[in-house]
Every structure is written in structure tokens, then in C-alpha cells.
Inverse folding.
């Protein structure tokens, strides 16, 4: 009896270990020490389609600098994220604003992402405990439950993973009552240096009165290997690199 | 003949008549003034809340009041404008565009309501212009001028002439940002309003927020605001189905309820007083009638029926009640009318009760013919009711018993 | 001899049953109404004051100077342990509560709202104001690892939260850095204090201090005193030993409450005065007629040698008996209604929205105090005295022989 129990325990821990490993691999693949990218964000809502062109520099998970290239109205707007803080510079009014707590859950640039999403885009590994739900050939489905102390609003995330490429295929976000709130899908996997990444991400809210809404991000250029100057991750950068 | 008997009786028992008259008249006056005061304070309360900013009625898209984001805006404001322009029951109307933004002076960024308004129209729709304390009110030609609440200005540490940065989102959720100069500062007395509201000329704000021909809602008032439920229903029927017309009773429903509770308590309190008056009149009538028991007995013996006696006695009270009704109503109504036009001012109550939304030092009275009428009638009926028992009792005696009454 | 007066008085009352009954009913009904309303109004104010003291200010509250004007973490009480020492040295303090709060944003997966997070100690709040009685759902606890939070009922409703729901609170700590922390709702509170129910989330003091990166600090320390009469004295003592802090009583923090209470009292006294002056009129009417009718009777009594005093006392007794019986009946009815209203309460839940806007609870309970009945007694007493003045004057002027002869009526 004891033997069976310990066998069970080992299997379970192996499972969870395996799940954690999958997530670890995933994150290692998607992130690098440095990342430079240009991308197009297309926001669809009942008012039509809006395209925003973005340039971004990031160091690990904690520091990132984003610059808006298009449309002309928003050109030069820059964002700086350091740990949990976020600042924004608006050239039209020549002001740097620190985003206060009350604005953190507002949508970022009108998309279905929130400021909070941008700031906390880390770490599935840090904030969640993974459990393997199923595994078939090259794909696996994991259930991510937030760790006790993690300051995340989700009740759970179900993630479908492409094991061969160590990329996510689909992420479904659930609220506290286990009701689906939004879905993120990934596609068009390409190789860039030592990383294989999805070039297209689409976020769709499942709210009844946001039926037409979706936000699509299409990466155009990605570079993991070039080192990025630390001057990008200072408050001076906001204004300096705005031009 | 009954009438002349009744009259004679009244004049004969001067004591009783005078007391009944005085009591009824004073009670009528008291009731009228009491209700005028109660209604007056409720009206003023509501009026302040309504007239400071909210307005008597709104037109908005169904669903806006539950979710006041950008999902439920009036997307074709011109269409609504046309409907309202041709509606003769509406006195004044204007569109408003409301959104929450970050305002910052030199230091702190503060979240606040920012509303695009039509300054000229708002003069008749809200107290924004009247509450000006520094600088100037907005005009229809202003561009980067902003009009702030006094407590908001304090929080931002700005004054007239200061520059304020605004960051928010436009209709399509893209970033809207602009710099404004403080043109004027207002103080309505409603702390919540003064600490979180800022106003800009709508036609300029529309260029920043991309809200041209778009409004959060229209605010309006009718020529006949007193019959607002009827007016609102009529207006609703002329609107396309996805829009709704709602008046302040819905918009400020918690306030309305609180007023109602206060009224109920007020009426209960004064009813206790009526209970006493009722009994006093009854006692006096009873005593008076029984004092004349032998006389009544004689009349019965002479051939008057109980119905006649009833008629005579009833006529007595009717005369007395009528006189007190007329006199009481005239005096009470005049007092209510006079003090409605020239309210008593007790300085300091506004400051003390400002948390409860009281903004003026005047003691309000409300003159309303209908209310006064039913007030007076109530006391009248009270008189009548008080007499029923004594009269019926005396009529139960036979003529003989009455004549020998001791 | 006096007994005769008593006996006669009693008999006279019942000779004219109807009249006596009318007066008794008048006094009884109006009295019970006045008592009921007084109890109810007092109950409302008491409840309001009580709620404020229990859930918020205590009898005395301590704040850092400037905090009330500008609620930033720049103005906090620190070190709290020193302040606690000083508090323990002051006699008369029953209990105290240490609170650390900050405004920020509370969020679920669907919605976010402005709210205030308050770090408290459950035991302190319990001793302080029986805080657990405010719990309407869930339990009065922060869970094993202090991961739980208690939330105001109106706020819970707006965010659609239930027991076990997860929320994130985001705010700036003492270094102006934005921090987030997650909690599970372990209980829902309904304090009756709108500021708390619509806006507050309560968590353990340890978690709060950690979150804000503070140690041994508080934004407010509230005190309860053993004997409310000593409040001012204690306040003076504290002011001396805690010089650079604000030490304020609940009525200084919320002067409106006192004003409301004063207005109710004035209203009450005025009501009693008016009602009983008019009631005196009623008693007067009956007494007057009763004296006039019995002029002959009294004259005979006087003629046969009855001392005037006895006759006078008879009248006074009659009026007093009427008043007294009326008072007993009214007090009894009033007492029953007050008992009912103070236990079962009056259910005004259909007016909940309006009432709660002003901090009144939707179910109203009445107060009962002995002085209500004493006040009523005096009112009736004076009314009866007032009412017999005139009848007694008439009595005095009686010339017995003439009355008997029929020449003076």
C-alpha cells in the first residue's frame, strides 16, 4: 500500500514537475536577455479597425521601452516600464506622466490589453503553478493556477502548448468563478536566432458586449541577440528617444 | 330654520365657538406652514442637486446609465438635436460629453471627470456659471480653456492662468492628450462635485477626443418642470427606440427616497398633534351639546326629528369649520406665499450641512395651491369627524330622556 | 375628610363616563404617539452615533497633523509602539485600535474600482467595537495565513464578489512605488457606515505594513474610553503627552452628529409642549363644564360646612385622576410600542437606498429611556394643573346661598 502511494506521489510530482518544466522552457524560448522588435498592433472594435506601429526594446522581464511610430497623431509617444512602474511621455504636451495605480487597469493604447498586462507580462512560471492536463504527441494542455501570493486577477489559465517548438498555441483566461474571460491565440511560428517564436498573437475578449473586439499583434522584426544600451531604460529615454 | 337655529346656538355659546374656531384656524395655519416648510426644504434639496449640474431630464442611449464608458454613446447627436429643437415643451437643452481623464498641474496627476459642454446653453441648464469664484466662465469660442472645481484646483495646486496637462482616451481608445489653461474656478458647495469636475468647451474637446457629433447624453429642462413625469413620457414617445428619456426622479432616485422617508416621518409627527385637536374639539362639542340636552329634548318634543337635530348640530360645526377653513387658509397661504418669495435667512446653515448637500442659508417654503387645499380640507374633515360621536349619542336619547337630562 | 374628597372625585368621574373616557383617550393616544416617535428618532441618532464610534472614530481618535487634510503616507503616526506605551499609561482607556490605510484600486478579472485598503487587527476591532457583529456573510477572519480580506457590502456588490472571490489591490507604497497584492474575500461586512461599506477592504495589519513597506506605523489610532463622561479629561491628558499629533473627540470629527441630536431634542421638547398645552385645553373643557354643572352641589356642600379646601381638592383630584389614568394608559401603550420597536424594529427596507445614503440603517430600532416616561409624566402633570386654574377660580367665586336660591348660575 505504502509502495503504491509513494509511486502515485512520485508520478504526480513528476507530472507537475514536467508541467513546470514545460512552462520554464516556454518562457526561456519566448524571452531572451535582450529583445528588440517592431510590430503592428491592429485593434478591431465596433468602431472599426485601428492600426498602431510600435517599436520595442526590452531587457529580461523587468525593463522595457516602447515607442509609437504610427499613426501620426500618436507618433513619438513613449512608454517606460521598470519593474512594476510605468511612465508615459506625450510629445504633444511635452509631459512625462507616471501611470498611477488607478490607471493600471485601463486599456493600453485602446487595445484589449491593459496597462497592467504590459507591466506584468511576466512570468507564468513565477506567478502560477502548472499542472499537466493532457499530452498528445507534440502538444500538451496545462492548467495554470495562480500561486498564493501572486497579484494576478485570473482564476486560472488553460494553455495549449506546442512542445516541439516550446511555444504556446492558445491561452484561455478564466476569472475567479472559472468563467472564460478572454482568449489569446498564437500562430505563424518562425525561427529567429536561437528562438522559435509566434509572429502573430491575437487577444479576444469574451464579454458579451465586446463581441466585435479583438487585438492582433503582428511582429515584423525581432532580434534577440543584439545588446541594448541601458540608456533606453531610464526616464530620460522617454523624451530623448521620442523623436 | 335649522340654519338660523344653528347660528343662534353658535353665537350663544361664545366660549365653545371661539375655542373651536381658534383651534381649527390655528391648526389649519400650522399644518399649512408645516407642510410648506417640509416641502420647501425637500424641493430645495432636490433643486440644488438637480440644478447644480445633473439637470431636470436626460436623453441617453439605453444602457448608458449602467455602463457609462464609450460603448453606449449617442453616436448621432445632430439627430437628437433636431428632435429636441422641434419639441415645444422643452425650454433649453444641450449635449454633454463626459469622460474620466488624468489631470496634472506641476506635480500630482489626479483622476477627474472632464466634460465637454456648450457654455452658452449651460447658463440656463446648470449652476456652473453662477458658481464662478475666480477668473471667468467659458465661452462658446474657447479652445484650450478649462473650468475647474475649487477643491480640484486645490488638489492640483493650480490657480487661474496655470497650465494643466490632460491625458485620457478618445472615442477609439487611442491616447488623447492636450494642454489647457485654467480660465476660471467655480465652487458649488457640493464637495464631491467641486473636487472632481472640470469643464471644457465641447466643440474644442471634440477635436481632441474625436467626439464630433457624439454625446454622452443630452441634458434638458421643460417649460413645465412641475409635471415632469408627463413631460418625460411624452418626450420618450418622440424618440427612436434605442434612446430613453429619464428625469431626475430616476437619476437621483436615492435622494427622492430619502425625501419621501423624511416626509412620512413629518406627517406622522404632526398627526399626533391632530389626535389631540380631534379630541379637544370632540370634548368641547360633546360638552356643549349635552349642556343643551334639555333644550334639544324640548325641540324633539316639539316635533323636530332626530334627523333635524342632526342637521342643526351638524350645521353648527359646518359653519365653524368653514369659517376656520377660510380664515386659516387665507392666513396660512399668505404666510407660505410670502416666505416663499422672501425666505428667512439663517446664516451658517449652509456651512453646517454642506456634507448633506445643503447649499443655501435660506429657510425654504413652498407654496402650492393643491397642497394647501388638501391640508385645509384635512382639518375641515377632522372637525366634522369630531362631531359625529357627540351628535349620534345625543340622538340616541328619546325626547323625554333628553328633556330630563341632568 | 380628605378621603371624602377622593371618594367624591372618583365618583364624579364615572358619573360622566363618556367625557372622562374622551379625555383619557386623548391623553393616552397622544402620549403613546409622542413616546413612540421620541424613541424612534432617538434610536436613529443613537444608532448613527454608535456606528460611527464603533466602526470608525471611537470616542477619541489620533491622527498625524495634516493627515486629515491630505491623506498621504507622508503624514503617518510612527513609531506606534511608543504611542502605545503612552496610551497604556493613561487611565480610563478601555481599548484602542491601530489602523493603517491607503487609497488605491481594487480589481477583479472583470472590473476595477477605487477603494481604500485598511490594515487592522481583528482582535482589537472586536474588543473595540464588536466588529464581528457587522459580518453578514462569511467569517470574521483573515484565514490561516492572513490571506483573507473583509469587504464592505456595497463594494462587494458593485464588484460582484462572493466568499472566496479573489481580488487584487494596487496602490502606491510609502516610496511612491506601485505595488499589488492579492486577497481572497473571507467575509462581507455591513457596518451601516457608508464610508466603510462602499469603499473599504480590511486586511491584516501585518500584510498592510508589508504592502506599504512600513513598520510600526499607522494612519489612525482610535480609542474607546471606560466612562464617556471622562472623555474630555482623557483627551486633555493625551494632548499633553502626544504633542505633535491631533487628538480629537468623535463630536469634533463629526460635529454634524451632535447637531442632529440637538435638533431632535429640541423638536421633541417642542412637540411635548405644544401637544400638552392643547391637551390642557381638553381637560379644561371637561373640568369647566363639570364644575359649572355642579355649582349647586358644591354650594350645598359649602353651605353645610364642608371646608372649601375639600371641595377644591376634589376638583383638583378629578383633573389629576383623569391625567393620571390617561398617563398610565398612554405610558403603557407607549411602552409596548417602544418594546416592539426596540427589539423587532421597524422594517423600512423598501427605502433602503434613500436611508443608507445618509447612514441610517434600513431597519430602525427605538431607544427606551426612563426619562421619556418622566418627561411624559411632567407634561401631563402640568397640563392638568393648567387646566384647573380657571375652574377653580369659578369655584372660588361661588356664593353658596345665592346659587342655592338660583340666583347665580
Amino acid at each position: 500500500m505504502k509502495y503504491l502511494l509513494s509511486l502515485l506521489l512520485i508520478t504526480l510530482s513528476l507530472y507537475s514537475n514536467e508541467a513546470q518544466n514545460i512552462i520554464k522552457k516556454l518562457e526561456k524560448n519566448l524571452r531572451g536577455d535582450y529583445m528588440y522588435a517592431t510590430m503592428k498592433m491592429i485593434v478591431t472594435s465596433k468602431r472599426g479597425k485601428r492600426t498602431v506601429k510600435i517599436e520595442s526594446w526590452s531587457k529580461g522581464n523587468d525593463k522595457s521601452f516602447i515607442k509609437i511610430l504610427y499613426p501620426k497623431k500618436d507618433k513619438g509617444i513613449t512608454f517606460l516600464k521598470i519593474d512594476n512602474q510605468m511612465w508615459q511621455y506625450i510629445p504633444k504636451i511635452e509631459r512625462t506622466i507616471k501611470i498611477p495605480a488607478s490607471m493600471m487597469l485601463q486599456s493600453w493604447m485602446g487595445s484589449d490589453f491593459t496597462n497592467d498586462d504590459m507591466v506584468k507580462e511576466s512570468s507564468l512560471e513565477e506567478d502560477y503553478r502548472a499542472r499537466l492536463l493532457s499530452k498528445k504527441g507534440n502538444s500538451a494542455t496545462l492548467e495554470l493556477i495562480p500561486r498564493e501570493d501572486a497579484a494576478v486577477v485570473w482564476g486560472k489559465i488553460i494553455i495549449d502548448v506546442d512542445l516541439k517548438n516550446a511555444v504556446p498555441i492558445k491561452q484561455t483566461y478564466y476569472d475567479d468563478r472559472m468563467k472564460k474571460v478572454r482568449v489569446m491565440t498564437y500562430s505563424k511560428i518562425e525561427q529567429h536566432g536561437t528562438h522559435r517564436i509566434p509572429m502573430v498573437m491575437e487577444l479576444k475578449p469574451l464579454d458579451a458586449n465586446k463581441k466585435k473586439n479583438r487585438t492582433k499583434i503582428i511582429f515584423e522584426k525581432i532580434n534577440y541577440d543584439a545588446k541594448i544600451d541601458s540608456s533606453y531604460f531610464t526616464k530620460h529615454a522617454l523624451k530623448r528617444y521620442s523623436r | 330654520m335649522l340654519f338660523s337655529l344653528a347660528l343662534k346656538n353658535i353665537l350663544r355659546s361664545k366660549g365653545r365657538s371661539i375655542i373651536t374656531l381658534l383651534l381649527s384656524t390655528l391648526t389649519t395655519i400650522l399644518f399649512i406652514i408645516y407642510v410648506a416648510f417640509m416641502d420647501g426644504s425637500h424641493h430645495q434639496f432636490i433643486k440644488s442637486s438637480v440644478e447644480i449640474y445633473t439637470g431636470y431630464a436626460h436623453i441617453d442611449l439605453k444602457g448608458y446609465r449602467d455602463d457609462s464608458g464609450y460603448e453606449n454613446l449617442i453616436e448621432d447627436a445632430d439627430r437628437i438635436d433636431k428632435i429636441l429643437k422641434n419639441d415645444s415643451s422643452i425650454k433649453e437643452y444641450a449635449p454633454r460629453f463626459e469622460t474620466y481623464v488624468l489631470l496634472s498641474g506641476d506635480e500630482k496627476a489626479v483622476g477627474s471627470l472632464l466634460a465637454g459642454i456648450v457654455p452658452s446653453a449651460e447658463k440656463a441648464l446648470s449652476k456652473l456659471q453662477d458658481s464662478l469664484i475666480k477668473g471667468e466662465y467659458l465661452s462658446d469660442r474657447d479652445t484650450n480653456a478649462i473650468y475647474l472645481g475649487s477643491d480640484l484646483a486645490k488638489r492640483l495646486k493650480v490657480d487661474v492662468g496655470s497650465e494643466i496637462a490632460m491625458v485620457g482616451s478618445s472615442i477609439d481608445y487611442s491616447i488623447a492628450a492636450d494642454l489647457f489653461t485654467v480660465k476660471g474656478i467655480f465652487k458649488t458647495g457640493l464637495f464631491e462635485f467641486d473636487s472632481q469636475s472640470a469643464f471644457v468647451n465641447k466643440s474644442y474637446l471634440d477635436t481632441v477626443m474625436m467626439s464630433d457629433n457624439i454625446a454622452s447624453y443630452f441634458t434638458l429642462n421643460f417649460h413645465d418642470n412641475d409635471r415632469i413625469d408627463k413631460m418625460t413620457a411624452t418626450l420618450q414617445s418622440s424618440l427612436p427606440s434605442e434612446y430613453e428619456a429619464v428625469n431626475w426622479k430616476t437619476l437621483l432616485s436615492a435622494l427622492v427616497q430619502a425625501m419621501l422617508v423624511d416626509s412620512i416621518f413629518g406627517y406622522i409627527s404632526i398627526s399626533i398633534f391632530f389626535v389631540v385637536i380631534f379630541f379637544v374639539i370632540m370634548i368641547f362639542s360633546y360638552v356643549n351639546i349635552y349642556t343643551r340636552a334639555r333644550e334639544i329634548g324640548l325641540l324633539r318634543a316639539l316635533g323636530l326629528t332626530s334627523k333635524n337635530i342632526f342637521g342643526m348640530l351638524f350645521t353648527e360645526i359646518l359653519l365653524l369649520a368653514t369659517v376656520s377653513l377660510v380664515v386659516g387658509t387665507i392666513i396660512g397661504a399668505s404666510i407660505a406665499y410670502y416666505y416663499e418669495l422672501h425666505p428667512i435667512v439663517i446664516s451658517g446653515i449652509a456651512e453646517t450641512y454642506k456634507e448633506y448637500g445643503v447649499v443655501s442659508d435660506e429657510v425654504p417654503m413652498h407654496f402650492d395651491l393643491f397642497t394647501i387645499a388638501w391640508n385645509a380640507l384635512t382639518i375641515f374633515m377632522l372637525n366634522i369627524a369630531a362631531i359625529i360621536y357627540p351628535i349620534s349619542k345625543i340622538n340616541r336619547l328619546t325626547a323625554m330622556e333628553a328633556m330630563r337630562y341632568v | 375628610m380628605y378621603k371624602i374628597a377622593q371618594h367624591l372625585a372618583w365618583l364624579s368621574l364615572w358619573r360622566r363616563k363618556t367625557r372622562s373616557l374622551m379625555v383619557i383617550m386623548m391623553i393616552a393616544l397622544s402620549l403613546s404617539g409622542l413616546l413612540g416617535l421620541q424613541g424612534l428618532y432617538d434610536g436613529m441618532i443613537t444608532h448613527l452615533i454608535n456606528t460611527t464610534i464603533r466602526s470608525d472614530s471611537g470616542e477619541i481618535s489620533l491622527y498625524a497633523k495634516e493627515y486629515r487634510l491630505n491623506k498621504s503616507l507622508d503624514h503617518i503616526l510612527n513609531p506606534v509602539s511608543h504611542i502605545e506605551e503612552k496610551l497604556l499609561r493613561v487611565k480610563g482607556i478601555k481599548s484602542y485600535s491601530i489602523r493603517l490605510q491607503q487609497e488605491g484600486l481594487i480589481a477583479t478579472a472583470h472590473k476595477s474600482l477605487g477603494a481604500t485598503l485598511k490594515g487592522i487587527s481583528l482582535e482589537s476591532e472586536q474588543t473595540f467595537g464588536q466588529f464581528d457583529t457587522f459580518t453578514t456573510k462569511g467569517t470574521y477572519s483573515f484565514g490561516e495565513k492572513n490571506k483573507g480580506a473583509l469587504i464592505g457590502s456595497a463594494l462587494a456588490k458593485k464588484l460582484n464578489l462572493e466568499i472566496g472571490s479573489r481580488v487584487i489591490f494596487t496602490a502606491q507604497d510609502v516610496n511612491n512605488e506601485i505595488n499589488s497584492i492579492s486577497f481572497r474575500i473571507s467575509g462581507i461586512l455591513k457596518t451601516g457606515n457608508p464610508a466603510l461599506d462602499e469603499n473599504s477592504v480590511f486586511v491584516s495589519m501585518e500584510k498592510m505594513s508589508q504592502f506599504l513597506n512600513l513598520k510600526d506605523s499607522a494612519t489612525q489610532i482610535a480609542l474607546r474610553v471606560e466612562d464617556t463622561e471622562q472623555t474630555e479629561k482623557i483627551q486633555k491628558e493625551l494632548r499633553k503627552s502626544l504633542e505633535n499629533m491631533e487628538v480629537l473627540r468623535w463630536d469634533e470629527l463629526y460635529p454634524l452628529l451632535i447637531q442632529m441630536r440637538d435638533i431632535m431634542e429640541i423638536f421633541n421638547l417642542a412637540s411635548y409642549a405644544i401637544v400638552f398645552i392643547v391637551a390642557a385645553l381638553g381637560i379644561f373643557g371637561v373640568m369647566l363644564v363639570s364644575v359649572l354643572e355642579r355649582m349647586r352641589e358644591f354650594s350645598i356642600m359649602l353651605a353645610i360646612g364642608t371646608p372649601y379646601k375639600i371641595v377644591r381638592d376634589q376638583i383638583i383630584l378629578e383633573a389629576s385622576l383623569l391625567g393620571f389614568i390617561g398617563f398610565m394608559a398612554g405610558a403603557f401603550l407607549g411602552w409596548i410600542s417602544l418594546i416592539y420597536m426596540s427589539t423587532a424594529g421597524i422594517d423600512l427596507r423598501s427605502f433602503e437606498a434613500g436611508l443608507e445614503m445618509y447612514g441610517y440603517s434600513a431597519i430602525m430600532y427605538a431607544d427606551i429611556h426612563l426619562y421619556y416616561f418622566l418627561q411624559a409624566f411632567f407634561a401631563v402633570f402640568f397640563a392638568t394643573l393648567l387646566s384647573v386654574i380657571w375652574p377653580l377660580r369659578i369655584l372660588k367665586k361661588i356664593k353658596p346661598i345665592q346659587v342655592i336660591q338660583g340666583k347665580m348660575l
DSSP finds 15 helices and twelve strands in chain C. The radius of gyration of chain C is 31 Å. Residues 118 and 202 of chain C are 5 Å apart (CA to CA).
